[in-house]
């Protein structure tokens, strides 16, 4: 097993959006496989036909694609493999590793109630386990695995350590229902084996399933994969992450304007660590990620930390890549697309927009000065900054700018001289100048804005507020 190429998988149920916890599970599997030249596979566990929808499947595809978690080959539909699952159940039956159980639901319920009344374990022990096939009735039956009655099953888990389960605690679980449909516990094992999965990295809510699933592996003589059951994600209050803590779906984080790289970085740090490293690239994450770095304790989701990492990723991102992500963000959040002129303006202004922006929404807010068209409509605060005195100072400034060399040093000199001539500070001139150029009181530096929009547009905007 240790020498085999690494194959991991992500196996979500398509019953809704891609949950942020599921996204982290997918990320861990992706990082582990990609860092070792292995394969990362995707399986859609759609056997619950009543709850599974094509729309949810597409939402999973979109979420993984936005996150940049590419999978190898086509996604596998578990439902389409039910014939293979049934085949394995019948093979186990033929090998004597499973048996037909004809007990009805009423009989099972009655047996459990009697056991409870007598103070015994309510785990159902089928009377058909050792029955002579000659005594089998012509009636519906399920196929149950023949679990060992003595000894211990040990789940050797790379995160949780060795977890021992007494075999007398394991029931003869159903493999094939009376209607011929396979159970989840059988389907998962057959699919993982057939797909060549070497490492099963999943939430620790599946830890109890591992011991039961090992019964199928061992009964079939198949290699048991490496288990790694990772702790769940909790909210800041230490309780299981839920809607009351905020956004749960990956799509919501895209619509909130977070870069995919920042979400990958943050999710990687939820429950896994590499020394004190907080900010890192995909290449570093692939090189560093290992199961030994995953903690046993539940991770706590912290929106402030995500925002901080997001700002770091925006600051170092390539401008063209940022603009492409901003366009995707606008589409995901239902906002109008940018025109070619606006994209051109963003490209020219990006150098002064990235600093201290934590989301794409904040970048666009700072970019208002280059995205909006004249005449700008100042917001309430900007309108207050453009009082009669301030307009008078801007009127003095305008002719000084008409023939000035259009570089930052000269522009700073001109504005400073006008401030001194009016016996005031540079900031007292900069604030109404900002209001005139951006229509906002929060924006990039006034000198950066003047350089981005150019002389003619600067003078035109000053003319709009001083006329």
**Class of secondary structure makeup:** mainly alpha
Helical percentage: 40-55%
- Look up the CATH topology of the largest domain: Rossmann fold
Number of helices: 19
Low-confidence sequence ranges: none
How big is the Rg? 32 Å
State the major sheet: 3 strands, parallel
Number of separate structural domains? 3
**Estimated share of beta-strand residues:** 5-15%
CATH class group of the largest domain = Alpha Beta
Q: Based on the coordinates given, report the CATH architecture of the largest domain.
A: 3-Layer(aba) Sandwich
How would you explain this protein's 3D organization?
This protein is mainly alpha-helical and about 475 residues long. It folds into three domains: about 80-230, Rossmann fold (3-Layer(aba) Sandwich), CATH 3.40.50.620; about 245-365, 3-Layer(aba) Sandwich (Rossmann fold), CATH 3.40.50.620; about 380-465, Arc Repressor Mutant, subunit A (Orthogonal Bundle), CATH 1.10.10. The protein is built from 19 helices and twelve strands. Helix 16 (about 390-400) crosses helix 18 (about 425-440) and helix 18 (about 425-440) crosses helix 19. It is found in: Cytoplasm. One of its GO terms (molecular function) is glutamate-tRNA ligase activity. Catalyzes the attachment of glutamate to tRNA(Glu) in a two-step reaction: glutamate is first activated by ATP to form Glu-AMP and then transferred to the acceptor end of tRNA(Glu). Keywords: Aminoacyl-tRNA synthetase, ATP-binding, Cytoplasm, Ligase, Nucleotide-binding, Protein biosynthesis. Its main location: cytoplasm.
């Amino acid at each position: 097993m240790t020498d085999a190429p690494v194959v991991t998988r992500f196996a979500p149920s398509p019953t809704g959006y891609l949950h942020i916890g599921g996204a982290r599970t997918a990320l861990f599997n992706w990082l582990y496989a990609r860092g070792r030249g292995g394969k990362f596979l995707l399986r859609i566990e759609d056997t619950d036909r009543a709850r599974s929808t094509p729309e949810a499947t597409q939402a999973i595809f979109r979420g993984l694609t936005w996150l940049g978690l590419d999978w190898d080959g086509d996604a596998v539909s578990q439902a389409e493999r039910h014939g293979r699952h049934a085949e394995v159940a019948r093979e186990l039956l033929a090998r004597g590793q499973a048996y037909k159980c004809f007990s009805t639901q009423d009989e099972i319920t009655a047996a459990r109630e009697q056991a409870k009344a007598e103070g015994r374990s309510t785990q159902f022990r089928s009377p058909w386990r050792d029955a002579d096939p000659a005594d089998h009735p012509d009636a519906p039956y399920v196929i149950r695995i023949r679990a060992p009655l003595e000894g211990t099953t040990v789940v050797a888990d790379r995160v949780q350590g060795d977890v021992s389960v007494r075999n007398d605690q394991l029931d003869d679980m159903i493999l094939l229902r009376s209607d011929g449909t396979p159970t989840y516990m059988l389907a998962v094992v057959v699919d993982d084996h057939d797909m060549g999965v070497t490492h099963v990295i999943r939430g620790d809510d599946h830890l109890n399933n591992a011991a039961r699933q090992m019964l199928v592996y061992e009964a079939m003589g198949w290699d048991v994969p490496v288990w790694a059951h990772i702790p769940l994600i909790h909210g800041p209050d230490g309780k299981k992450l839920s809607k009351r803590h905020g956004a749960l779906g990956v799509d919501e984080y895209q619509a909130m304007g977070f870069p995919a790289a920042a979400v990958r970085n943050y999710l990687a740090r939820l429950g896994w660590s590499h020394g004190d490293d907080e900010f890192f690239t995909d290449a570093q994450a692939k090189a560093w990620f290992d199961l030994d770095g995953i903690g046993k304790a539940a991770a706590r989701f912290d929106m402030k930390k995500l925002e901080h990492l997001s700002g770091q990723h925006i600051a170092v991102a390539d401008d063209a890549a940022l603009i492409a992500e901003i366009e995707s963000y606008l589409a995901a959040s239902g906002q109008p697309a940018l025109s070619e002129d606006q994209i051109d303006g963003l490209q020219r202004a990006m150098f002064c927009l990235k600093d201290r922006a934590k989301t794409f929404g904040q970048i666009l807010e700072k970019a208002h000065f280059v995205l909006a068209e004249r005449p700008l409509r100042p917001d309430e605060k900007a309108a207050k900054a453009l009082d009669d005195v301030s307009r008078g100072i801007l009127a003095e400034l305008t002719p000084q700018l008409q023939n000035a060399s259009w570089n930052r040093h000269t522009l700073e000199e001109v504005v400073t001289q006008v401030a001194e001539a009016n016996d005031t500070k540079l900031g007292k001139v900069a604030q109404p100048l900002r209001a005139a150029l951006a229509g906002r009181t929060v924006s990039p530096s006034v000198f950066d804005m003047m350089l981005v929009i150019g002389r003619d547009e600067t003078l035109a905007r000053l003319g709009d507020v001083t006329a």
